[in-house]
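Sat 14:20. Reprocessing the chain from the morning session after the first attempt stalled halfway. Input below, unchanged.
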Amino acid sequence: MVKRIRHSLEYLINKSVQNKTSKAEENLLDHFAFTAYKNAKWDEASMGNSDEVSKNIYESILLRIEKKKTFNPYFKYMAAASILFLVGLGIFYKPDTSNEKQLTFKTTSSPKSIRLSDGSKIYLAANSLFQYPAKFDGNQRNVSLLKGNAFFEVAKDKKHPFIIESGEIKTRVVGTSFHIQFSKSKCEVIVVTGKVNVSAKGQSIDLVPNQQALFVDKKLTRLPVDKILSINWYTKDITLNQATLKQVITILQYKYGVTFEYKNQAVLTMPVTVFIEKNASLESVLKQINYITNLKFNIYDEIVQVN
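Finished this time. Tokens:
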């Protein structure tokens, strides 16, 4: 059934571009497009960046106007809906990914790990979303961290650079290990081993161990790393011995993909010793801190309020 629909749609669109459709066929296309457009939902994980595809839609519209010298008011719906529909059927693919089948890896309340086809291992923090191909086929190994935090152990392959897209940030490596923390307001890349190149908005910097790149407010900056951020909390149990509460909260924000809100800044300087098991829940760690400090924590989705 899907093949028949796909074939019919491709056939009508090709006829329309060549000005060979009848009025009835054009009406059928317009009706389908307008209906599909109203019901369409964009899935960034499987369909790519909506801005880039919108640009392709706009160029298609201009091409149609140039060829037909007329403009159907519903054509913008046909272009948008057709692309949405065809992408869903697997006809169109994201740019620069060849014909690689894209998969998504999502975490909820706890970190998880995954091994890619090249042997690279990705440790994904809680509340994170990662996109990757089932198999790397092109000259580059392209993946995307769409949300949250991850630790990358990239398999060495000089002929095929490993490139991670995180919003406007591109991180390029050959074989190394590093953290990426990605949120709506900023992106951080922290190098543990090897050499990493980070670029964004025409800016580019190289990083070595104990350096980090911070991208915020459209500016890319190289900074030294706070030692607390280089701790491997993805794969090991850790003990934070006499760390400040601020340092502990920083680790918890990255590990569990949450944001802490607090009214009293003074509590952040409080020294605490906390044991965080690799697979511990956020609730269990907060109970430890509550026992030590008598602070109360309320969790609201991805927000933790400190009282």
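Residues 65-71, 86-97 have pLDDT under 50 and may be disordered.
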